[in-house]
Amino acid sequence: MFTGIIETIGEITDLQREGENLHIKVKSSITNELKIDQSVAHNGVCLTVVEKDANQYVVTAIKETLDKTNIGLLEKGDQINLERAMKLGDRLDGHMVQGHVDQKGTCIHIEEMGGSWLFTFSYDDSYGNVTIEKGSITVNGVSLTVVNSKKNEFSVAIIPFTFEHTGFNTFKLGTEVNLEFDVIGKYLKVLSQGYF
Questions:
Q1: Residues 109, 173: contact at Cβ < 8 Å?
Q2: What Cα–Cα distance (Å) separates residue 155 from each residue in 1, 113, 124, 160, 190?
Q3: Is 80 exceeded by the pLDDT of residue 92?
Q4: Considering 10, 51, 79, 96, which has the largest number of Cβ atoms within 10 A of its Cβ?
């Protein structure tokens, strides 16, 4: 379980394909605190540490992960949002984030607002995911509040700290992002429609 509050930015130092798997080597300031078999969110995708050395570690993304997320688009030198799993009893500063990406979205509008930024994303609504005004959404692992919720798009307002300390400062029109919709909203939708 994560909170969507990004802890640090990592750098992709190597990518190795093995069959349908992708082994990703990440350099980060938290590597020395990680353990093998520990979960870390990478742009909001929960991946398990399988190797580590002084300041780099390796995680593996399987086909399911590569199909549903933007992890397969990573290139050597790219920056990636990192968050370690929360500890029981910690403050929940963002919202409940599972690290299980629902689908990808696309950045379709960026507007500088005189000290903040408004980012708009579109997504394929055939998956049945929805946003609501002032509800929670996770974009590349960042816990955010929805603004301007529409049928297949939404906007988020980004403060300077978030812009500077996450990958938002690298987004351009057409950037594909990982979206994890609010877990409580997903359960409520299923319950209101019935299980089958």
A1: yes
A2: 24, 13, 15, 16, 24
A3: no
A4: 10
Nearest Cα to Cα of residue 98 among 118, 111, 83: 83
**pLDDT above 60: residue 23:** yes
Please give the structure tokens belonging to residue 183. 């877990």
C-alpha atoms less than 13 angstroms from C-alpha of 95 in its C-beta half-sphere: 18
Q: What is the pLDDT of residues 114-167, one digit of tens each?
A: 999 999 999 999 988 989 899 999 999 999 999 999 999 999 999 999 999 999
Query: Counting beta carbons within 10 angstroms of the beta carbon of residue 188, is it exposed (0 to 12), middle (13 to 18) or buried (19 or more)?
Result: exposed
In single-letter form, the type of residue at position 118 comes to L
Measured in degrees and rounded to the nearest 5, phi and psi for residue 193 equal -95, -5
For residue 114, with 0-12 CB atoms within 10 Å meaning exposed, 13-18 middle and 19 or more buried, which class applies? exposed
CB 88 within 8 A of CB 54: no
Contact 23/76 with Cβ under 8 angstroms? no
- Please state, in angstroms and rounded to a whole number, the distance separating the CA atoms of residues 132 and 154: 9
pLDDT score for 78: 97
Query: In 3-state terms, the chain is what percent helix, strand and coil (to 5)?
Result: 20, 40, 40
pLDDT band at 195 (very low <50, low <70, confident <90, very high): low
